[in-house]
Amino acid sequence: MSEARDINPILKQVLELGPPIVFFLIYLRIRDETYVWGGTEYSGFIVATLIFVPILLIAMGVLWAMTGKLSRMQIFTAFMVIFFGGLTAWFNDERFFKMKTSIVYGVFALLLGIGLLRGQSWLAYVLNDAMPMRHEGWMILTRRLCAMFAGLAVANEVIWRTMSTDAWVKIETFGFPIALVAFLFWQIHALQSYLIEEGDPPEARQ
């Protein structure tokens, strides 16, 4: 198994955030176009979705080659993009790709919720090395993030069912990620008292 390696954080962000932005730009360019393949007419949205899938895979391949690792979240998200992107093209129905976001957020909420029912924070298993925090803090963050993911799943369902494709693409590309990042920064600030500093006594880690 290859050893994990660090890379330039800016390059890492480009590889992780670049594909959705490229999808957005391609969609803006071809959203009013229609394409006929094999006697079937496809909208610009569906063609942009088909282009997005290999772009995402290439970016993930480069990230894996440079770092030697991919997170479970990245792998799961890529699988969902491929699966629902394929359904979108196969059935020529953009609803499959739109509902993918609801399912991804819903699964994250479900997994965190299962951990909470077991009295555990599965976030801590993933992030504790990067952000050491007392158990109580992890449980608070997990409950709040579980609710956030559930809220995003519901919001996506409302948005794609009631608003235009243009609006959904903009919110999916920018709105949801910005909301999630802002929420996480807010929580990190709010939970400062639970963070474990170097040199804290063992009892402070409980």
TrEMBL record:
HAMAP family named among the record's database cross-references: YciB (MF_00189)
Protein name: Inner membrane-spanning protein YciB
Keywords assigned: Cell inner membrane, Cell membrane, Membrane, Transmembrane, Transmembrane helix
Entry similarity comment: Belongs to the YciB family.
Ranges that cross the membrane: 14-30, 42-66, 73-91, 103-125, 137-155, 167-186
InterPro entries: YciB
Protein localization: Cell inner membrane
UniProt source species: Tateyamaria armeniaca
Role noted for this protein: Plays a role in cell envelope biogenesis, maintenance of cell envelope integrity and membrane homeostasis.
Pfam families associated with the record: IspA (PF04279)
Membrane topology annotation: Multi-pass membrane protein
Tree of life domain: Bacteria
Primary location: membrane
